Amino acid sequence: MEGFWTAHVIWFLAGSAFLLAEMALPGFVLLFFALGAYAASLAAYALGLGPGGQFVVFIAASLAGVALLRRMFLRVFRGRTLAQAEGETDQGLDDPGAGKAAVATRAMGPERPGEIKFRGSFWRAASVEDIGEGEDVIIIGPAKDDPGAYLVRPAGGGAKHRGGS
Question: Is 80 exposed, middle or buried (CB count within 10 Å of its CB: 0-12, 13-18, 19+)?
């Protein structure tokens, strides 16, 4: 049993651990580390690469996976909304937050990103208008330059938020 803990077995087990972690913390990032670990395992087994070469294969395969496949996987696994299936994607209906109210927790403007509190979490936000901290906002949809941020507008009248959200 002394030959069991070879490099390719360790990389394979690391890849499996990354897959399990991805299931617990879905975000489609750890999945690519799993693919990188499996590629390093294959390289260690088939090519007999040393530790440095294995690590380079791991990093290269992981980064390539993120760069080339993440958006496609997100589209496939998130699915389409009914509005998208009916061709209504230009109205922001494809974003679950579109039309919902939130609160600005950090001031923002056309050239200055901010932050909102929405559904109990804090999110990056952008606006074409100046919005002060504490103001109520309406989510328009995802920001064009930052897919991880919301595009928002003032909720009208620039009212300050009162109460906990």
Answer: exposed
Range of the domain at 22: 7-78
Q: Report helix, strand or coil for 120.
A: coil
Q: In this structure, are 100 and 148 located in the same domain? A: yes
What one-letter code names the amino acid at 8? H
Residue pLDDT, tens place only, 32-61: 999 999 999 999 999 988 999 999 999 999
Token couple for 131:
């919005």
Pairing of strands 114-118, 136-142: unpaired
- Which residues on neighbouring strands pair with residue 109, listed in sequence order? 112
1 inside domain: no
For residue 111, the 8-state DSSP code is T
pTM listed for this prediction: 0.47
One-letter amino acid for residue 90 of the chain: D
Dihedrals phi, psi of 153, to nearest 5 degrees = -135, 160
The strand pairing partners of 102, in sequence order, are 137
Residue 83 burial by CB count (10 A; 0-12/13-18/19+): exposed, middle or buried? Answer: middle
**CA 161 to CA 123: how far, in whole Å?**
17
